[in-house]
User: What shape does this take?
Amino acid sequence: MPQRTLRGGVDLGGTKIQAVVVDDDQHVLGQARRPTPAVGGPADVVAAIDEALREAADQASVDVASLSGIGIGAPGAIDEATGSLARAGNLPGWRDPYPLAGDLTGRLGPPVMLGNDVQVATDAEFTLGAAKEFQSLLGVFWGTGVGGGIVLEGRPWLGRGAAGEIGHVVVRHHGLPCPCGRHGCMEAYAGRRAMEQRAREAQDGGEKTHLFKIMEEKGRERLTSGVWAKAVERDDDVAVRLIDDAVEALGVAVASACNILDVDAVIIGGGMGVRFGEPYARRIEEAMMPHLFHDDLPPVIRVAELGDLGGALGAALLVAVPVA
Amino acid sequence: MPQRTLRGGVDLGGTKIQAVVVDDDQHVLGQARRPTPAVGGPADVVAAIDEALREAADQASVDVASLSGIGIGAPGAIDEATGSLARAGNLPGWRDPYPLAGDLTGRLGPPVMLGNDVQVATDAEFTLGAAKEFQSLLGVFWGTGVGGGIVLEGRPWLGRGAAGEIGHVVVRHHGLPCPCGRHGCMEAYAGRRAMEQRAREAQDGGEKTHLFKIMEEKGRERLTSGVWAKAVERDDDVAVRLIDDAVEALGVAVASACNILDVDAVIIGGGMGVRFGEPYARRIEEAMMPHLFHDDLPPVIRVAELGDLGGALGAALLVAVPVA
Assistant: This one.
C-alpha cells in the first residue's frame, strides 16, 4: 500500500492566516486560522503560520514534519529561486526580502513553495472550484483591494511575474485617487479600503449614513463586507451609492480585461465578491455588457466556490502531488 | 536541389490591398497594391486580391498557381474551418459569411489560409520585426481604428477568437462616443476616424484649424496620418490638442493592458503609429507610466519595423514553410 502523503497550504492574508492540510484528492483533513499579526515583523508572521500549520496538522492527525510539502500563497514580491518574500505591504514590517520558505522549512521540516496569493486562489477555482470546466479564466478577487489572477489554456499566466492586476486597470482617466497612489484605477471605486475612505468623506461632508454605526454594532473596526451588506440591506443611501459605483467600476475594468484576453470565464471571489454573491455577479455582468466588444459571446461570470479556503487550497496545489 | 517554394501574403485592409510573394526566408520577391473597392461586394474585393497577387507573382517571376499557399490577413469574423469571412465592416457589402478562401483557391489554385489582419501583423513583428528578441508582446496598430494583437510565450493569443481589442479598452467611463457605438473606448480618442469627427466638430463649433485645408492641398478626402503630421508640424491648435488626447488615451489603455498581461514589449504600428514614429512611441510610453502598476519594470515600447508590408508578410507566415 502506498504511503499516504499529505500537503499543507497557507493563505497569508493581511487580516488572517488560513492553513489547511489536504490529501492527494484535495480533501481538507485539517484547517486552522490565526489573525495576521498587526505589528512586529516577518518573524512574528512566521510564528503565526507555524502555529496555524501545526494546528491544522493535529486536526488531520499527522505530524507537520511528515507533510510532503507546504505551499504558501503570499502577497508582495516573491523570489521563487531564493524562497524569499519582499514588499508585502499588508504584512507588518515586511519591506525587505525575508527568507520565508527557508525559515519555515527550518522550523517545520517540509519543503516550502511560495506563490502569489491571488494567482493560487485563481488556480484553486480552476482546478477544484467554479471554473473546473473552463480552459481560460480571469479570477477577480474583490476585497480590501481588488486582485486578479489569469489562467490561459489551463496554465497560470504570470507575465514577468506581475500579470493580472485587474484592480489597477484604469476606469476613468483623471479619476479618483487609488490607495496605490495612482488615479482612476478600478480599485479606487471598488476596493473595500477605498470605499471606506469615500464613506468617511461622505459622512464628514454631512451625508447621513449608518455604515459606521453598523460597524460598531458588529464590534468591527473597519467597514467589513458584512457591514456593507447590512447597510445595503437597510437601503443606506451612501452605502447603496458606493456599492453601485463599485459594481460599475468592476464592470468596466473586467470588460476591458475581457476585450484584451477573451477568456471563457470570469470568477468573482474575495470577501466582498463572496459576501455579495450571485445577485451581484449578475449585476457586474450587466455593467460589463455595454463595454464588451464582442457582446454576442460574453464570458461566463461566476462566483468563486471555494470561499474562505480557496487561497489555502490553491497554495497546497503549489506542492506537486506524487504520481501513484 | 530542393525545389524553390514561394508563398503569397495579402493584407486586406479597408483602404488598400497589399500583396507580397516571399521565399522561405521571408524575402519579398514581388509586391503589388490595389485600392480596396469602395463599392460592390465580396466578389469585387476578391477580384482585386486576385489582380494584386498575380502582379506580385509576375514581379517574382513565378506562376501564381505554383505558390505553395496564400495567407490572407483580414478584418471581420473568420471561420477557419470553412475559410469564410463575415462582418468585415470596412469592406464593401461584406456582412454575411463569404467563402473567401475557397473562392480564391478556385481562381488561383493554391490553398488559402485566413487570419486576423492585426494578429498576423503582430506575428510578423514578432517573427521578423521589432519584437524579434521578445517572447511576449502586445501589438498596437494605431490607424483608422486601433487594433491589437497578442503573442504570449511565442504563440499568438486569440482567446475565443476575439482577443486583443486594445482599441475598445475603456479609458473613461461615460466618455466620448466611439465609432463602435460604445462610450469611452480608447479608439474614441485615438482612432483616426474618431479624431477626424472631433476635428470637424471643433471646426463647426468655430475653432480655427488648418486640418481640412491641408487635406485638400494633399488631394485627400480624409484626414490621413500625413495630414495630421503636417498640421501638428504647423502647430495647428486643434490638431495638437487632438493628438495629445490620442497619446493620453493610448497611454492609459496600453498601461491597463500591460497591468493585465505584463508582456515584455509593446509594438506600436499602424498608419498613425508608423507616421508619428519614435518620438511618439516615447510620448505614449510617458503617458503609460502614471498608470503602470509595476512601473519599476515597464515593457519595452517600440515602433513597428515592417511598415506597410507588415500585414502582408504576417499573412504569408500563415502558410507553413516546408521543412528542408
